[in-house]
Design goal:
The structure holds three protein chains of three kinds. Chain A is mainly α. Chain A has 20 helices and two strands. By secondary structure, chain B is α+β, with helices and mostly antiparallel strands. Chain B has a single domain, classed as Cytochrome-c3 Hydrogenase, chain B. Chain B is 46% helix and 12% strand. Chain B has 16 helices and eight strands. Chain B is globular. Chain B starts with 12 loop residues before the first strand and ends with a helix. Chain C contains three helices and nine strands, in the order αββαββββαβββ. Chain C has a five-stranded mixed beta sheet with strand order 1-2-5-4-3, with helices on one face. In chain C, strands 6-7 form a two-stranded parallel sheet. In chain C, strands 8-9 form a two-stranded antiparallel sheet. Classes of the chains: A mainly alpha, B alpha+beta, C alpha/beta.
């Protein structure tokens, strides 16, 4: 146990006052040290994800997006709650003082334009809404589902390394753990769909199960490919292995290490999109078909939990993508200088770089959502089983062949205890083969696609601005 | 694997889509019976928006019915106005004593507004279809362009949705001074915008795969089931009333008529949803061309409203008090296809019977046939591809 | 139009149906009046005959002749006229048929077997004018609710005083449906309909 694990031990010891703390003390310590800060960070970021979504959508659709809700109301509310022991006039005076602060005065309009006010207003609105449980619903199942969804979205973050040794649980089977616990979401969606007592919800729930279970396979295979390459399931070790000394650190990233890994990265991202039920794979919600799918009957905070779970999962996919393929928290250039900095500064820099990476993924997902139409159920399944899974199998096989051909490993050079980890090194032959196979495969795929679609009709060429 | 290959067995699920389902384009209710995701039968239920417009027509005077035609189809109110006014003029012209000559400038303005409204109506149609398939952005881009058309109309007649602009014998107001330039500049930017729109959604592979070979209606079926307009042309029938039974100025303009040609390529079939969709887009292009043509033909305005060339309104107040007795059937090409008026007059100032035959009504009639054996997700796409507008069905 | 002329079509119809009558309306619009019994024959001819081939049913509608002036002498004075507007997409010619159904026993054979488009049109005519289309597979109301009383487009239709407890007229409001024409009888107040009053 490393990293925060020591902190947990220390807190547990301090809480219980004995060197061998009981399970209550350990639990409380875990909650204090691991869960609370992570919740405090992940969920607000996920909520911000919603604003990112709305703003990006607005930009794509040439609108302004949320920009009118002032932050004053929520802040005044906050003041009233915080200063509830003071008379009303004093509260108001304090609030006016606060508003006149130059920082506040200059910042508030910007935040309002960015839609943060809308976020706050939505949050308050959601808290105040009635929690409706339909008469036909299965009460317990219906009520439990949002919590489960949130849990399923949150648990995988326990093993994601945010910076060097800044990871909740440094388990040696991190990759396996992520795939295992994210499966809880399936159960949550099924419960929501089934428990609502609504046919649209049930269809959504059923679709969600079929889709999520299917897409676990390409996700799993993509992760397996990385594990094969790295020889470890420890996410922290996988990150560390992508380290290269020198200016151009990014040459060590899995994405560019082998074309097969690049293929797996693409599959992982697509399947990840499907895992978090985003367009073009948003079968379970499909608002134009199923009203709102599995969460049709939810209102207020429970609905909010589902929304939060969705964004949390998007963040998770982004974080995992960065971890597995983009060198995790490492900078693309000059990582070795960051390592040499003061640990606190390095950690902060790493956190920032990691945030940029997964926010980029988030942006990409949002972009895709507001650009593409939705697949049909059968097309989603076909894409999974007939396209993504075979690509994964080919890539994993190719990777294995590459590793065998390479035959040798070079020693890693970074990060303390990981220093001696073996790392695959490809000879010339390995690289040649590595790039030849995917290029050929791509050619064949393009050929098939061309033949299946035929030439574009001249009228379509004309409609898209080409000559007729 | 075709859908037909999946046998429909076991217990069926009754699913109520509408009348307040997000994708049923107004208050259309469809009773869907499905086996899981596959629809085994689909029965539309109409009447939620029935406002007895035909009954109202029997209670009010001839020109007073024009605002009601706006409500027959509020997505293309100009065309709905025009359909009624052309029909009444045809009735009046059956007797030389009451014949009306619409001023030429008014005819030009009529074509102009009808084609602009056709553009804006088709924008809703293609945008809503994209939205039904899950792409939200194209719809908003289409709406943005529709707003420009509405701006033009608002300057023209003060209204943005129900215009009450075309009147029996002409149009209510002359074009404002800068209208021609505004329309021309709108058309220029609109054409560029449509290229972007088409690049965004029309040629998108997912969209094409969703719509190709879906709800195929053959030409013979389309005719027999009474499909009209873009739905009929989407099935490959080369028929457009503007060209084949021209009214107003259309005879001079030479309308080019697109028809379904399996635009989706090898995966598609003539008369599938994608063909209907593309036909609408091609009609938008044609409307743009017609608008430009008409702007060239537009005679200068005259001082008098009833000037036979430069005026905008023939005087029909007297003849509408005593129209000829008898009946007339007149059909015009609205965006949702043939809008046929069957007018019966008993020689008084109040119509004896006003019958509106609309495109959406017969399009809704074919739903239960084409929606058998398709996926639940495609039900909304099919509704979208037929471009039904519920007020037009229910009237 | 470059198909057959109206006269040629009418002559062709007369070959299969002696009772078919060519009529011109007051404003000179020609149509063929066919007795209800002969409609299936005439319709089948128009639909199937290669020279006629009226494959499109442009419209199927009707109107109540009860108050139509100048028809007092005619025995069909108060009949419901069902109008068939046919068009040939092949030959581009059109023809209008009219069938007059007595309002008491208002039934006309269906043509939905020949033109599926008639499935909806006939339901609408049934709903609004109360014409029974014999042989129609699902002759139900289409625009009005299933339990609506009466057929609104009939000229002697009186608005129900209330529908499921919702009054049609507010207190002191006077509206009797159509504007009064000369010679119209004074509208009589309608008794409240029974809940499932539809015949």
């Amino acid at each position: 146990m490393t990293g925060l694990g020591y902190a947990v031990d220390a807190v547990a010891v301090w809480l219980s006052g004995s060197p061998a703390p009981g399970w209550i003390a350990v639990t409380v310590a875990v909650l204090l040290v691991w869960v609370a800060p992570l919740l405090a960070i992940i969920f607000p970021v996920a909520a911000l994800g919603q604003i990112v979504e709305r703003k990006v959508a607005a930009a794509i659709q040439r609108r302004h997006g949320p920009n009118s809700a002032s932050l004053e109301g929520p802040l005044r509310f906050g003041f009233r709650v915080l200063l509830c022991f003071l008379p009303r006039a004093t509260q108001d005076r304090a609030f006016q003082r606060f508003l006149k602060l130059p920082v506040v005065r200059s910042l508030l309009p910007i935040l309002q334009k960015l839609g943060i006010g809308q976020l706050a207003a939505d949050g308050i609105k959601m808290l105040g809404k009635e929690d409706i449980v339909p008469r036909g619903a299965d009460g317990a199942v219906f009520r439990l589902a949002p919590y489960l969804a949130l849990t399923g979205a949150f648990l995988p973050f326990c093993v994601v390394p945010f910076a060097h040794h800044l990871v909740m649980l440094e388990v040696s089977v991190g990759a396996l753990y992520v795939i295992a616990v994210s499966g809880v979401t399936v159960l949550a969606l099924l419960m929501a769909g089934w428990g609502s007592g609504n046919k649209f919800s049930m269809l959504g729930g059923m679709r969600a199960v079929a889709q999520l279970v299917s897409y676990e396979i390409p996700v799993g295979l993509a992760v397996a490919g990385v594990v094969l390459w790295s020889g470890t399931m420890d996410l922290h070790a996988i990150v560390a292995q992508q380290y290269r000394p020198g200016v151009f650190t990014f040459v060590g990233w899995n994405l560019v290490q082998s074309p097969f890994l690049a293929m797996l990265a693409g599959v992982f991202f697509l399947a990840g999109l499907a895992e978090c039920q985003r367009t073009p794979f948003d079968m379970a919600e499909a608002e134009s078909e199923l009203v709102s799918g599995f969460n049709t009957e939810y209102s207020g905070l429970r609905w909010g939990m589902f929304a939060l779970a969705e964004y949390t999962e998007m963040l998770l996919i982004g974080a995992l993508f960065a971890t597995l393929f983009l060198g995790g928290y490492q900078s693309p250039i000059g990582e070795q200088w960051i390592v040499g900095l003061h640990p606190l500064l390095a950690t902060l820099l790493h956190l920032g770089i990691f945030a940029v990476k997964f926010l980029a993924s988030l942006f990409l997902m949002v972009w895709i959502r507001w650009t593409l139409p939705r697949y049909r159920v059968d097309q989603v399944m076909r894409l999974c089983w007939l396209t993504l899974v075979p690509i994964c199998l080919v890539a994993v096989f190719g990777l294995a062949v590459q590793l065998v051909l390479a035959g040798g490993t070079e020693a890693g050079t970074a990060y303390g205890r990981l220093a001696a980890l073996p790392r695959p090194a490809l000879g010339v032959l390995g690289h040649l083969l590595g790039w030849a196979v995917p290029v050929l495969l791509l050619g064949v795929l393009v050929r098939i696609a061309r033949r299946r679609h035929g030439g574009m009709h001249p009228a379509l060429r004309q409609l898209t601005g080409g000559g007729s | 694997m075709t859908i037909e290959a999946i046998t429909l067995g076991g217990e069926r699920m009754q699913l109520n889509m509408g009348p307040h389902h997000p994708a049923t384009h107004g208050v259309l209710r469809i009773r869907v019976e499905s086996d899981g995701e596959i629809v085994s039968s689909c029965i539309p239920d109409h009447g939620y928006l029935h406002r007895s417009i035909e009954k109202i027509g029997e209670c009010i005077e001839w020109p007073m019915f024009v605002p009601y035609t706006d409500r027959v189809d509020y997505v293309c109110a100009m065309n709905a106005n025009l359909a009624y006014c052309v029909a009444v003029e045809k009735l009046l012209n059956t007797d030389p004593a009451t014949a009306v000559v619409v001023p030429r400038r008014a005819e030009c303005i009529r074509v102009l507004v009808a084609e602009l409204n056709r553009i804006s109506s088709h924008l809703i149609a293609v945008g809503a279809m994209a939205m039904d398939v899950g792409a939200y952005t194209p719809f908003l881009h289409g709406i943005a362009q529709r707003e420009h058309v509405n701006d033009i109309f608002e300057k023209l007649c003060g209204q943005r949705l129900t215009y009450n602009y075309v009147t029996v014998g002409g149009v209510a107001f002359d074009l404002h001074e800068t209208a021609s330039e505004e329309i021309a500049s709108f058309l220029d930017q609109f054409e560029k915008e449509m290229v972007r729109f088409n690049k965004l959604i029309t040629t998108n592979t997912i969209f094409r795969d969703r719509c190709a070979n879906l709800a195929v209606v053959t030409a013979a079926e389309a005719i027999a089931w009474g499909l009209v307009g873009p739905n009929l042309r989407g099935s490959g029938v080369d028929w457009d009333l503007r060209r084949d039974e021209p009214y107003g100025l259309y005879g001079e303009l030479g309308v080019r008529v697109p028809k379904g040609e399996r635009y989706a390529g090898r995966k598609g079939a003539v008369g599938d949803c994608y063909d209907r969709y593309i036909v609408r887009l091609l009609e938008i292009q044609e409307s743009v061309r017609l608008c430009r043509e008409v702007l060239k033909l537009l005679p200068p305005a005259a001082g008098k409203a009833n000037d036979p060339i430069g005026g905008h309104q023939a005087d029909v107040s007297k003849v509408l008090k005593r129209p000829p007795k008898g009946f007339v059937h007149c059909r015009t090409e609205a965006p949702r296809g043939e809008m046929g008026y069957f007018l019966v007059s008993d020689g008084t100032k109040v119509p004896y019977r006003v019958r509106v035959r609309t495109g959406s009504f017969s399009a809704a009639g074919i739903f239960h046939k084409v929606m058998r054996g398709i996926f639940l997700a495609d039900v909304v796409a099919v509704i979208g591809s037929f471009d039904v507008v519920v007020p037009e069905i229910d009237r | 139009m470059n198909g057959m002329t109206f006269e040629a079509i009418a002559a062709r119809i007369a070959q299969v149906c002696d009772e078919a009558m060519v009529v011109r309306s007051e404003n000179g619009q020609p149509f063929v009046r066919v007795p209800a019994a002969a409609l299936p024959r005439v319709a089948a001819l128009l639909r199937r005959d290669p020279a006629l081939l009226c494959d499109a049913l442009m419209d199927l509608t009707g109107y109540d002749r009860l108050k139509y002036p100048g028809n007092e002498a005619s025995p069909a004075n108060d009949a419901i006229a069902v109008v068939y507007l046919l068009f040939s997409q092949q030959h581009h010619h059109r023809v209008m048929l009219e069938v007059q159904a007595p309002r008491a026993l208002c039934s006309v054979p269906t043509v939905s077997g020949l033109w599926p488009a008639a499935l909806y049109f006939e339901r609408e005519v049934f709903d609004l004018l109360g014409v029974q289309f014999v042989g129609h597979p699902s002759l139900e109301r289409i625009l009005c609710p299933d339990d609506w009383v009466g057929h609104p487009l009939r000229k002697d239709y009186l608005y129900p005083a209330q529908y499921h407890g919702v009054p049609h007229l507010r207190e002191g409001q006077h509206f009797d449906g159509a504007p009064r024409r000369q010679g119209d009888p004074e509208p009589t107040p309608t008794p409240a309909p029974t809940k499932k009053g539809h015949p």
